[in-house]
Amino acid sequence: MWPRFSPFGPKEEHSLEAMVPTAQFRTFGVHHLAVLIALVVLGILVAWGGRRMHGTARIWLGRSLGLVLLGYAFVLYFQEARNGWLHVSNSLPMQLCDWVLIACLVTLFHPNRLASEIAYFWGLGGTLQAVLTPDITQGFPSWRFIQFFWGHGAILLSIVYMIAGQQFRPRPRSVLRMMTAVNVYGLAALSLDLAFGWNYGYLLHKPAQSSLLDYMGPWPWYLIAIEAIGLLSFWLLGLPWKILDHLHARRQPAH
User: Fold this and answer.
1) DSSP per-residue string spanning 105-157
2) Does some domain include residue 5?
3) CA-to-CA distance for 176 and 194, rounded, in angstroms?
4) Residue 7 pLDDT > 80, yes or no?
5) Helices H, strands E: what count in the chain?
6) Which of 29, 89, 167, 254 has an alpha carbon within 20 to 30 A of 37's alpha carbon?
7) Domain around 115
8) pLDDT of 222-240, one tens digit each?
């Protein structure tokens, strides 16, 4: 749904990058595949823990994932402040992905249906695509590589926990609700962008780096394309649950 998913928006490379020699990042190269395999293994463990653990142990599994996300946000803001990058034009939690991270934190520490749906639909719609096609130039052990997969991986594992440990499932009309919510976000971000000349959500112009938006036409037509892709993505993410409900209904004995 989003061109390149990056929690808290795209940031400059860490100042230490130039001091640490690293290889160029290659999509589905050794480092990328290693991280993907690690995330699959961790996802299986989180799903197992979410299903098998009970009571306090299960709750603390979710809170531990929440602490990992909080640690990521703290380190990122500390990095920005230390390097003089902290500014209202790019550091407010007004990227769509910021809302995903906040929704994950809310539901991990205090389960909430709306927050869970935002995390699931918005998160999988962007994070999964980003993990498969990362917007980074340097591989391991660069800070950008670690930071990128720290944030994205923790969000994916949080969604796995919500499904396995909190028995998440979309409510009726969830796709309509998510489309309404994403447009509320869009209006809020666009209002700030127009008022102050910012570009939260890439609603005024495309990102400087190459992205899927490059194939969606000029402004404002790419915004319409994003809307259509978002609707399709949400529908596809809701489809597995509808199929499961249909199969479950067919297994029920007739009366």
Assistant:
1) HHHHHS--HHHHHHHHHHHHHHHHHHHHS---SB-TT-HHHHHHHHHHHHHHH
2) no
3) 27
4) no
5) 8, 0
6) 167
7) 17-251
8) 999 999 999 999 999 999 9
Q: Are 201 and 153 in contact (CB under 8 A)?
A: no
pTM flag (> 0.90): no
DSSP class of 61: H
Total domains in the fold of the chain: 1
Residue 9 lies in a domain: no
Question: pLDDT by residue (tens digit) across 149-179?
Answer: 999 999 999 999 999 999 999 999 999 999 9
Distance CA 128, CA 166 (A): 20
Please, which residues have CB within 8 angstroms of residue 201's CB and are 6 or more apart in sequence?
A: 94, 95, 96, 185, 186, 189, 190, 193
Each residue's pLDDT tens digit, 77-119: 998 899 888 888 888 899 888 899 999 999 999 999 999 999 9
Any domain includes 8: no
How far is 97 from 155, CA to CA, in rounded Å? 10
Q: Domain for residue 2, yes or no?
A: no
Q: Tell me, rounded to whole angstroms, the distance of Cα 133 from its chain centroid.
A: 13
